[in-house]
UniProtKB/TrEMBL annotation:
It comes from Paractinoplanes tereljensis. CDD domains: SDR_c. Belongs to the short-chain dehydrogenases/reductases (SDR) family. This is Uncharacterized protein. The keyword Oxidoreductase applies. GO terms for molecular function: oxidoreductase activity. Keywords: Oxidoreductase. The keyword Oxidoreductase applies.
Amino acid sequence: MQKALPLLSPGASIILTGSTAATRPQSDLPVYGATKAAIRNLVRGFAHGAGAGQYRINVLSPGGTRTQGLIDLVPADQLVAAGAMIPLGRLAEPEEIAAVAVFLASDASSYVNGADLAVDGGFAQI
């Protein structure tokens, strides 16, 4: 990433993928949660180095998302149970995650820098 920064256009938006596992680690995936927490801190460090207008950098942390891969891997009853644990009562749809990525990439988020935006139906808050 450090080598790519000088190649970016002024005002570029960098989006790294985090996870709710960074703030709500799971006992069966401790290394995964630790790496996602490291991404959060990496972004915070780079955000401090962003000069005026150089770039913005943020983390998009999706929660459980109904991707085809997840549907193929997890039995339907377990998907329903996972959705029930989320305050909004369901898993995210891929388009909902994509919409937040588009927002972070757009000028509409021009004053967002160093943020970790959880798109998880409120799961990280409970």
